[in-house]
Amino acid sequence: MKATALAHPNIALVKYWGKRDDALILPHQSSLSLTLAPLSVTTTVEFGAGSEQVEINGHHAKGSERERVLRVLEAVRAETGGKLGPARMVSRGDFPAAAGLASSAAGFAALAVAARAAAGLPEDPKAASLLSRLGSGSACRSVQGGFCEWLRGERPDGTDSYAVQRFDAGHWPELRMVVAILNRDEKEVKSRDGMKHTVETSPYYAAWVKDAEAEVPRAVELIQRKDLQALGELAERNAWRMHSTALAANPPLCYLHANTLELIEHLREQRKKGMPVWFTLDAGPNPVLLTDAAHEVVAEALALACGAADVVRCVPGGDAVLKSEHLF
Ligand code: PMV
Q1: Which of 75, 179, 180, 301 is least buried, going by the fewest C-beta atoms within 10 A?
Q2: In the structure, which protein residues have their CB atom closer than 6 angstroms to any atom of ligand 1?
Q3: What distance in angstroms lies between residue 48's CA and the mean position of ligand 1's atoms?
Q4: What is the pLDDT of residues 292-326, one digit of tens each?
């Protein structure tokens, strides 16, 4: 009745930005991401506790964070016929939360895998992906490693909206992602609020959806060919388009800081000198640099020179896995 899982976050190369169903967390468009190691979240779940207990990074979770966890646990109880009692969940991550890095993605992927195992359900990446989506959309792309595509799906009940692995972590081992932490503060507007506001008020939203959907198969083809330059260019233009759509909302939504732009400007200069480095940017000020193993140290130095407080070098990560050591 107790199980523990570890999952990695992911960074989208083609972003998800906007829901067609807020309750079921169904996106308007498909998206594609790369799982990032060594960053990870570990989660232990035990059913049969006296009352529901949700502890994240040493704090009792409150508000919507707690509700989202309880929702995932409730879905597992429903799947097993409602016989499982209240659950205790303890989760611990090893990277800064809510700073533009998808800590919630790793957290809900680990929760889904651990909760299913604790309930005695078989390992099933599709079922875990569907379950994790109920906590956080991008989490459905962290159940499996490597490059995962979240299929938009068509059905109103969301049963066809989950992530599939396009290439595993071993497909492109030389690929590197360097997370430049320019600002550790929690962002003012969370992704879920920001995307809702964008869907409701940005006149560019329909164009964003059409464009992003079309970019996914192109990105898959470039990953297949391991074409870093073309993939880097695609990731950059997709990030710009997501941020432009948000900037066009009313009132405008700007996640970029002055030093985000400064770093982006430097990347452009370095590329002119022949360095293979591009960026992507989630809903936060911290760019993630895309490069290869031969250039990751230079990319790190570049981020530090532009004022990054911290830099995390990442490699393609593997699947979420069950662990034998528990957090309680
Ligand atoms: O799944 P959420 O609610 O954390 O939203 C993620 C949104 C972005 O990180 C900006 C894009 C993405 O596809 O991960």
Answers
A1: 301
A2: 12, 15-17, 31, 102, 104, 136-138, 191-192, 282-283
A3: 32
A4: 999 999 999 999 999 998 899 999 999 999 999 99
